[in-house]
Amino acid sequence: MRFIAIFLSLLALFAQPVSAASSPYFQSLEQQLSSLISNKSADVGVYALDMKSGENVSVRGDVAFPMASTVKVAIAALYLAQVDHGRRSLDDTISGVSARSLLERMMIHSDNRATDMLLADLGGPRVLDNWLREQGVTGLRVDRTIAQLLADKRDLWDRRDSATPHAMVYLLTKIYRAELIKPESRDYLLDVMARCQTGKNRIKALLPFGTPVEHKTGTLNGYTSDVGFISLPDGRRVAVAMFARGGNDRPRAIAEAARTIYDGFRSVLTWNFTPALSTTR
């Protein structure tokens, strides 16, 4: 039994995706990001992944941060997975409101009441957390409803309802590659995320005008985040997760990191392959 446990542990170790930049250019970009972040008063974590080449950069990417409203990406994914399997419909009504309306209010306007209505209909935080585990998404945990999270004493270092930037990008990657939801549901979710009305001073703030961005923000007292996809001029998408707590320059830190990532990934020609991604940390 001990041999089997050791063998499985080794398999899990080698199954992890690379969490550090894998080429000299991206190592340099990672160092640039690290220098940028080190000069901020906020505690910032960043992970970015080119969806085509698999190249990535990480600065504190395996450190857990609160998710706040970025958890709504996971809630939307589970609901749409249920739609894909015929168990639910976007035309279903929940307390007199269509699921489609609730999902769009949750993702576009970050409506907390709509979020908790959808989450309750799905079975609550534990059901969502278990589903993520079943899909191989680790490093991300869901413990409370939004109402419970906001009512509890605030602790920005609480491991409950937290995710690492790496884990959040892994979730985004599985959504994008239609591994959690069907392509049509993926396209619908990306369209909804492209209409996000919150956090205009974060990922989108310093990008060239008209840059396509599909994203979801999160906000608490002393905490700011933004996660999603940035499209490059050649059509490549970069999945990003940026979490910041403490300090007084959180939105600016996210905006500057997003522009650094955009410029850095745009400057590199991509390779014509798509590497497999396994379970994240």
Automatic annotation (TrEMBL):
This is Beta-lactamase. Coiled coil: none annotated. Residues 1-20 form the signal peptide. It catalyses: a beta-lactam + H2O = a substituted beta-amino acid. Residues 45-243 form the Beta-lactamase class A catalytic domain. Keywords: Antibiotic resistance, Hydrolase, Signal. Pfam families: Beta-lactamase2. One of its GO terms (molecular function) is hydrolase activity. PROSITE patterns: BETA_LACTAMASE_A. Its EC number is 3.5.2.6. Belongs to the class-A beta-lactamase family.
